[in-house]
Amino acid sequence: MLRLAASWVWDFWFADDGDRFHLFFLKASRALHDPNRRHWRATIGHAVSTDLVHWAEVADAIVPSDPPAFDDVATWTGSVVRADDGTWRMFYTGVDRAGGGLVQRIGVATSDDLMTWSTTGRALVEPDSRWYERLADGAWPDEAWRDPWVFRDPSGQGWRMLVTARANVGDPSSRGVVGTAWSPDLEQWRVEPPRSAAVSGFGQLEVLQLEQVDGRWVLLFSCLGTELAADRRAAGERGGIWAVNVKDPAGPFDVAAAYRVADEELYVGRLVRDRAGRWWMMAFKNTTADGAWVGEITDPMPVGWVEGRLTMVAEVAVPGASGAPSVPDAELVADA
């Protein structure tokens, strides 16, 4: 488990260099006292592990740029891939002063070693108003265009990005879509129409991840109960971590058929594969049973397919739980 004494941690993502797992995460100082203030103070922290359980914090990866820049207020969620030239690319979300912190854009940072990152302060991918809602539409509190999930295009040609976005048509409470963009080289990006229907049953699909788990494709996202579509809320549905079974990784994705994997006490479920090839889910601890904010990241939880649904399963040993810590005790920042 990753719990920092000085900071809350929440959304996160991984990179694997073959020797160590790298955990990148949003963090903000506990000196803010009110966790609702954390979003406008967020930076991207970094920790490393050999077993997904014991984490050593290292230098932060990215902080907001000097103004004017697309990320001069805060740096938010992203993903990491390795380019064909061997460099690492982190695609991440930025919010800026010019947009009042309400306009979200996606930029990129580069690294040779996953430890030191260089950013440009320039937005790389922005929503296209032909398909996507903009702040001026007035249907949502902010302009959703964030949480990029980048992977090689299933066609074998280029790269694809999935984005938390909202359609510009339909019931405003139900416009959450899988936004998408395509690139031949991770440099130039072409925004494309959503890969899911404009009326999804969700106000937004946060922190998307597409993976093939034990031979079956699945799309993960998170949505709070307050951001479910009006009809879902009226039916008493609750928020949390959701999954969509996927036939074709190129889409489209039947988000309306999503099922819940975990309730809101956990949020931002991320799938990760250990060195033995087993799949696990980690999440951040969002709230306690009585609704108090937590702000720490769980140990790995085993997942599997049960009656055709991705499910957290029991009675699987947590990787590294019975072995020695992967780093010296003095460097551990995780509570076992």
Topology:
Blueprint: E1 7-16, E2 21-29, E3 43-49, E4 56-57, E5 74-82, E6 88-95, E7 104-111, E8 118-119, E9 145-152, E10 159-166, E11 176-183, E12 190-192, E13 206-213, E14 216-223, H1 230-234, E15 240-246, E16 259-263, E17 266-273, E18 279-287, E19 293-297, E20 301-306, E21 309-312
Antiparallel strand pairs: 1-2, 2-3, 3-4, 5-6, 6-7, 7-8, 9-10, 10-11, 11-12, 13-14, 14-15, 15-16, 17-18, 18-19, 18-20, 20-21
Strand pairing plus helix content: what structural class? mainly beta
Distance between the termini: 6 Å
CATH architecture: 5 Propeller
Pattern of helices and strands: EEEEEEEEEEEEEEHEEEEEEE
Rg from C-alpha positions?
Answer: 19 Å
CATH class: Mainly Beta
Largest sheet: 5 strands, antiparallel
Question: Which residues sit in consecutive blocks of at least 5 with pLDDT less than 50?
Answer: 322-336
Counted up, domains total 1
Number of strands: 21
Total of DSSP H or I helical runs spanning 4+ residues: 1
CATH topology: Tachylectin-2, Chain A
Task: Please tell me the overall pLDDT.
Answer: 93
Strand content is 35-45%
CA-based shape: globular
The amount of helix comes to under 10%
Q: CATH homologous superfamily - what is it?
A: Glycosyl hydrolase domain, family 43
Keywords:
mainly beta, five-stranded antiparallel beta sheet, about 325 residues, Tachylectin-2, Chain A, 1 helix, four-stranded antiparallel beta sheet, globular, 21 strands, disordered C terminus
Give a quick precis of the structure.
This protein has 336 residues and is mainly β. It has one helix spanning 230-234; strands at residues 7-16, 21-29, 43-49, 56-57, 74-82, 88-95, 104-111, 118-119, 145-152, 159-166, 176-183, 190-192, 206-213, 216-223, 240-246, 259-263, 266-273, 279-287, 293-297, 301-306, 309-312.
